[in-house]
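Quick review question:
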């Protein structure tokens, strides 16, 4: 979660207290999973193209996540003379940030070859190449051939990846600590208050390694065609990592003959000249005529916000129409604290009444954001938009794909692709009501993939449904910070990297309390439950956290599948300084499947209670319930109670653990589970 207000340091420093003194009375055992596989090479492909969803067999996630118009193929399943790296779930490693925690590493002269599972005329390649020695990135070629014939040469870049250091991060690999007065896990100390001062190795905490590029092929190729990606000899990239290939069959461009065409107002489809003013003129006329605005195929340079209200803007399709801009430094900071501006479609500020009846569809927004400045309004879509729809956009290289500042109501965000963001994918922030994000595909965000944040003003009646979120490099796949009557349903969340979970309910960051109900229903998570670097414990695939307030709303987690959990499937926690002040109650789990937990099914580190009905678990590495309660270890047992509501299978919820037996192991030994399989 990025924020566009002051107090940024507090946002990420909040809750950094360690589990200390009292927690030390618990059994302390091994912590971080490090399962680095030996590098292997393969010269042959599997007999049939291995199509996956979040690196799993599609049958394991049927009905969950976004419906997408591409086929995902993992590089580690393709033919290659390179080296397969991973699996690894440690922070700051290339395989840990890869989909499925594996990828293929190539040196100049090596290749990886995919067999198309269906007809395709375009591909997306997710990759990583090294940073420049002093930061700022490099570019390097990648040859693309189909059936042995050269098709195109892509120019890869690391200019939008490779962040370092503490939040809000740096582009300088040699920089010293941004916050020497913060406690860090590397020395288990506050460096500025430690004598002698610890030696901090640079680059410190590298991450956000990957980027992706979309490429049109010269024609449509049939299923079975061989797409080979080769690092040419002489490449200035010492190595190139290929994570996956998505193959697309892109249809014809969309045309609107009765709409107001931006070309008639001087917009330049070659991208050489600035087109923002032409867009404004077209929008003004379209509003007077009550017509749509049309963006024909082309690339349009726009280096500031396009303010939209009561207007429909349609492109020819996100593969054909691109609105692209440079990040521009402001001569003086804007009233909201922004020091840069850039391409984006913004509703009016909520304080000015916001915008309404805005409809955006069918184009790509390509930003130029290379650093995280949380006060900057350099998001793809922003402001307040009520009674609006955002559909079929491709959002790339902005700070946040869509950041809405309410109050606002009744907005639908549907079927968008949101990738390679410096911060969040989407955030419903402050008084957003009765709004839905559905069918969106989110990959490689620098913070929460999808978030609802009731900062000071309550969100209400919002839904995240049938979205796919992959590989957020920091924080959570889906996060809800307070609010009333919230639904998170039918989503697919995979591979959060550090300091977050697949699904997070957090009373934190100044959010209003959870009220009414929270429904977490029929979601699937995979390879979730990261290692929290500050607490030095493993999180759960779903993580409830009472930091600022109690969590006492009616929380029901029903029909969810938690697969291949690195640590716990379910975690309920309050931070140590407030453990005797806040609790988590009225939480109910039903019809849940847990297939693989490195430690426990449930980890309770809070006062409170929960009920469990028809929760089936297998391949659990440690005790089923790791119940520490509030770490007071009273003669009456833990401060957290569990109720067996019946039908719980797998032996994980044993009678001797009920209702509140202390089973506290602060850092249990991790047993890596087998890969998920059909239930």
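Suggested answer, residue by residue:
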């Amino acid at each position: 979660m990025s924020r566009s207000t002051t107090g940024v340091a507090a946002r990420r420093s909040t809750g950094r207290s360690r589990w200390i003194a009292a927690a030390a009375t618990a059994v302390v055992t091994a912590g971080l999973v490090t399962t680095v596989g030996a590098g292997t090479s393969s010269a042959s492909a599997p007999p049939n193209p291995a199509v996956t969803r979040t690196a799993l067999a599609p049958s394991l996630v049927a009905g969950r996540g976004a419906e997408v118009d591409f086929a995902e193929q993992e590089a580690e399943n393709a033919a290659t003379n390179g080296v397969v790296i991973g699996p690894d779930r440690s922070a700051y490693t290339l395989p840990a940030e890869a989909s499925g925690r594996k990828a293929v590493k190539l040196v100049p002269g090596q290749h990886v070859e995919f067999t198309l599972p269906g007809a395709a005329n375009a591909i997306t390649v997710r990759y990583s190449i090294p940073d420049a020695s002093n930061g700022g990135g490099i570019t390097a070629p990648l040859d693309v051939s189909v059936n042995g014939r050269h098709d195109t040469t892509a120019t890869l870049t690391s200019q939008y990846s490779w962040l370092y250091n503490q939040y809000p991060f740096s582009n300088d690999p040699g920089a010293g600590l941004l916050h020497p007065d913060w406690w860090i896990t590397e020395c288990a100390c506050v460096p500025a208050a430690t004598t002698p001062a610890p030696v901090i190795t640079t680059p410190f905490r590298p991450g956000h390694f990957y980027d992706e590029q979309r490429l049109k092929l010269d024609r449509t190729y049939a299923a079975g065609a061989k797409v080979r990606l080769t690092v040419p000899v002489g490449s200035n990239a010492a190595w190139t990592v290929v994570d996956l290939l998505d193959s697309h069959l892109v249809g014809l461009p969309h045309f609107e003959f009765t709409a107001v065409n931006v070309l008639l107002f001087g917009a330049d489809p070659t991208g050489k000249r600035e087109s923002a003013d032409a867009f404004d003129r077209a929008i003004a006329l379209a509003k007077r005529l009550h017509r749509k605005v049309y963006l024909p195929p082309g690339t349009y340079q726009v280096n500031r916000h396009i303010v939209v209200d009561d207007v429909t803007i349609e492109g020819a399709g996100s593969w054909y129409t691109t609105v692209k801009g440079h990040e521009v430094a402001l001569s003086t900071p804007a009233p909201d604290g922004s020091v840069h501006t850039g391409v984006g479609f913004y509703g009016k500020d909520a304080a000015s009444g916001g915008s309404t009846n805005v409809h955006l569809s069918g184009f790509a927004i390509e930003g130029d954001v290379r650093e995280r400045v949380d006060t900057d309004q350099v998001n793809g879509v922003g402001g307040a938009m009520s009674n609006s729809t955002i559909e079929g956009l491709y959002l790339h290289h902005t700070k946040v794909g869509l950041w809405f500042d309410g109050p606002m109501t009744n907005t639908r965000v549907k079927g968008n692709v949101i990738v390679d963001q410096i911060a969040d994918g989407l955030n419903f922030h402050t008084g957003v009501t009765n709004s839905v994000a559905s069918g969106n595909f989110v990959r490689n965000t620098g913070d929460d993939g999808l978030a609802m944040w009731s900062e000071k003003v309550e969100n209400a009646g919002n839904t995240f449904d049938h979205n796919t979120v992959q590989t957020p490099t920091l924080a959570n796949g889906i996060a809800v910070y307070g609010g009333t009557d919230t639904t998170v349903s039918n989503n697919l969340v995979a591979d959060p990297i550090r300091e977050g979970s697949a699904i997070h309910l957090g009373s934190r960051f100044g959010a209003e309390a959870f009220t009414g109900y929270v429904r977490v229903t029929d979601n699937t998570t995979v390879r979730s439950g990261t290692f929290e670097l500050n607490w030095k414990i493993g999180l759960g695939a779903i993580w409830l956290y009472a930091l600022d307030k109690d969590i006492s709303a009616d929380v029901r987690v029903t029909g969810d599948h938690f697969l291949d959990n690195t640590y716990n499937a379910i975690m309920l926690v309050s931070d140590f300084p407030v453990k005797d002040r806040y609790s988590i109650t009225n939480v109910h789990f039903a019809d849940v499947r847990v297939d693989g937990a490195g430690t426990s099914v449930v980890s309770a580190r809070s006062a409170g209670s929960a009920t469990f009905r028809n929760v089936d678990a297998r391949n659990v590495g440690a005790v089923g319930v790791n119940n520490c309660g509030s770490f007071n270890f009273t003669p009456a047992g833990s401060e957290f109670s569990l109720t067996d509501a019946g039908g719980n299978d797998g032996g994980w919820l044993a009678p001797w653990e009920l209702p509140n037996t202390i089973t506290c192991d602060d850092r249990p030994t991790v047993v890596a589970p087998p890969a998920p399989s059909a239930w």
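Why it works: The chain has a mean pLDDT of 93. The first strand starts at residue 27 and ends at 28.
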